[in-house]
Amino acid sequence: MTRIQNSVVSCRWSFVRGRVSRLAFLCMLALGGWLTQAQTVPQVPAILLGTAWYPEQWPVSRWDTDLTLMQQAGIHMVRVGEFAWSRMEPSEGQYDLDWLERAVTAAAKHGIVTVIGTPSAAPPAWLTQKYPETLRTKEDGRKEQHGNRQQFNFANPKYRELSRAMAEQLAKRFGHNPNVVGWQIDNEYAEVSFDPDTKAQFQQWLMNRYGTLDNLNTRWTTAYWSETYFDWNQVPIQVGYGNPGLLLSWMRFVSDTWRSYQKNQLEVIRANADPKQFITTNMMGWFNGYDHYTVSQDLDLASWDDYVGKGHLDPVRNGAAHDLTRGFKGKNFWVMETQPGGVNWASINNWLDKGEVRAMAWHDIGHGADMVSYWQWRSALNGQEQYHGTLIGPDGTPDPLYPEIVQIGQELAKASPVLAGTSVKSEVAILHSYDSRWAIEWQKHNKNYDPVDEILSYYGPLRKTAQSVDVVPPTADLTKYKLVVAPGLNVASEPIAQNLIRYVKNGGHLVLGQRSVMKDDDNGLWPQRQPGPLADLLGGRVEQYYALVDPVAVDGKWGAGESSVWAELLSARKSDVEVLMRYGKSNGWLDGQPAVITRKAGKGRITYIGAWLDAKTMANGATWMTEVSGVKPAFGPVPDGVELNPRYGGDGAVYVLVNFATTPQTVKLPATMGDVLNGAAVQSVTLAHYGVAVVTTKK
Ligand code: GAL
Description:
Elements: H1 3-15, H2 22-40, E1 48-52, H3 60-72, E2 77-80, H4 85-88, H5 98-109, E3 113-117, H6 125-130, H7 157-174, E4 180-184, H8 196-210, H9 213-219, H10 244-272, E5 278-280, E6 282-283, H11 292-296, E7 303-306, H12 315-329, E8 333-338, H13 356-366, E9 369-374, H14 402-419, E10 428-431, H15 434-442, H16 451-466, E11 469-472, E12 483-486, H17 494-505, E13 509-512, H18 535-538, E14 540-547, E15 552-556, E16 561-572, E17 578-583, E18 594-601, E19 604-609, E20 611-613, H19 615-629, E21 642-649, E22 652-659, E23 665-675, E24 680-687, E25 692-696
Parallel strand pairs: 1-2, 1-9, 2-3, 3-4, 4-5, 6-7, 7-8, 8-9, 10-11, 10-12, 12-13, 13-19
Antiparallel strand pairs: 14-16, 15-16, 15-17, 16-20, 17-18, 18-19, 21-22, 22-25, 23-24, 23-25
Helix pairs in contact: 1-2, 7-10, 16-19
The protein binds beta-D-galactopyranose.
Beta-D-galactopyranose (GAL) binds next to loops.
């Protein structure tokens, strides 16, 4: 029973005695107070629309106008505070959070809940002046200075002490504020420090991992180029070019350091906050400055900042980034920031087309976003981001985009109850690992080899065919998937190899893409040929890899096409290995040799693709992969350019369809369904360019 229900019961008891006792009077007062508080706590829908609001930049007298405009647009969430440290703590230990509490209360009066950002991405000038060691050191040895953001040293103990104290003040003040639904720690972790103390911490980290220098020297093969270390303090920091074991260790140290940086604030928030308030941080899609799986472990919710920049939304690249983010916690996520039309930091800051922002919001929700928040509400009149897109202009009146946001808000009001409790479920997983992406980035071997593009070359056709794909780390439990595809899984430790072998033996279909299982856990070469410990299961192996200047023809079960950038000469070493594709005439070495092989193994199947296939051949490959694995898409094939996004709940499915093709498209539904936005029973939907339909099997 809640506190309020309890009070209602005891108050009712004092009234039935037939007189208004002192107790009853006190009850009336108390209950009145609680009810007022309860009534002002916004009842927000399951799917939220939000915006980044910076009340500290505006007079209090303006707040209500802003919040009214937000409310009219259907906005239910504001994120505040993440750069407001100088306002929250104008001098050391002098905290001023009254203004923030007023802002939270003012928002609640408009039905808007708040996410509070801890302000550690922007330390105040007094802090870095008094404690210069808290400023980060850049790779060239120079110190950052005040005046931008992210100037702090993520490994510095003093900075951690001060940012923890700030977070604690916030948590103590707002941890039980019913209008605050969650916390964002810092903002877009990115910049690391190269100061001597951080280096010493790295050396200590190496000591913990490797135990002895002998072990480190062996696993990094430091006999090469006389790299042998005789003392831990001889180990340098190397980024981009260096011993592959050292490079990978540094990135793992960076990831662990971001994790502990985050934990430092997270602990004091958890200790002081209602567990109903979630803790997140805003990540950045394909950004690979740290291992997001490491950092996500301690969070309650994954969220990311989804910007298009130059050009227009690429639903494949962006959709895969959503699926990647969903994979950090294995559940629905938030889009903590997205562009209201345009940004200010791209090479050309073109505006998204009319209707594209709405299409993008629905694309986000289709991939499992439960909140879409626009950065930002209104530009600061001065400051570095004056040209960035906003929802209202410097004059405080709506921008041309505002009505489109109003439309999204109205649509969400209809769709939220239907989408509540639904999530994405996929039969296909793509494996993604930061270790592998880094390893390939450091030794591309072909300047055109982009590991994310490689992943997308698989993801695009698989998503179209299977209509839902998860992106998960290779350490994940794979048992629920019918098909697991690992493009460029370059670094695969022994436990990862065992996870994959187990998956195949238990009946799964594993597809390894080019450059997979070449390196061990220290970014050293496996002493077996690719795919290392899986070669035996595959019954074949990579005899040689070739970086390509010109594409090479391929032909076979998936039709005639070509391989570009990369080609691996495969061999079939067991009699039951089937060759699916072969190279055409090329450099002599590849001519007529296997490019794709497959073998039934255990209760499952393992396939290896050595070629970087063109889109059409890969599409045929995706059809074969899904069919042979028994993957069942939700609908029959949908027209090109239409994205189908299923979300499932206990009582039925919801399908979000978005048309990115430039011409109208009609999609025939597999059954009669409810059209959530238009309120009718439909058997097909016709979508204009950027058109959206939300249909459901729910009654
Ligand atoms: C994000 C950042 C925001 C804002 C935005 C502009 O990376 O978190 O504070 O700068 O970019 O696009």
